[in-house]
Design a protein that fits this description.
With 98 residues, the chain is mostly helical. Helix content is 80%, strand content 5%. The longest helix has 42 residues, at 56-97. Pfam families: DUF485.
Length: 98
């Protein structure tokens, strides 16, 4: 007898993706909070030249943007991996029931 587990598997994948998204959000939140804290309490530090004539504020800001893109790529990679694993498991269980 074939049991349709696809809804349950989709729910598990959705939970995995949600957990990953929340974790990556908090990683980014900590990095962004560091930028805001520097801007509020040590604003003179942001004027410090870091490299190539760029100050810390500009370098940190560009770094945050690049980091957000990297986190998006990581999120996409793992979400695709979770979905592929669920699909593979579904295909295996369908093959067993035939």
């Amino acid at each position: 007898m074939h049991v349709n587990n696809s809804a349950e598997e989709k729910e598990i994948v959705t939970q995995q993706k949600s957990k990953l998204g929340v974790r990556l959000f908090f990683v980014y939140l900590i990095c962004y909070a560091g930028f805001v804290i520097l801007g509020v309490f040590k604003y003179e530090l942001l004027a410090t030249t870091v490299f190539w004539g760029l100050n810390l504020a500009l370098t940190y800001g560009i770094g945050l943007i690049v980091f957000a893109v990297v986190l998006g790529i990581i999120y996409n990679y793992y979400c695709t991996k979770y979905e592929d694993q669920a699909e593979e498991t579904e295909n295996l269980t369908e093959g067993d029931s035939k």
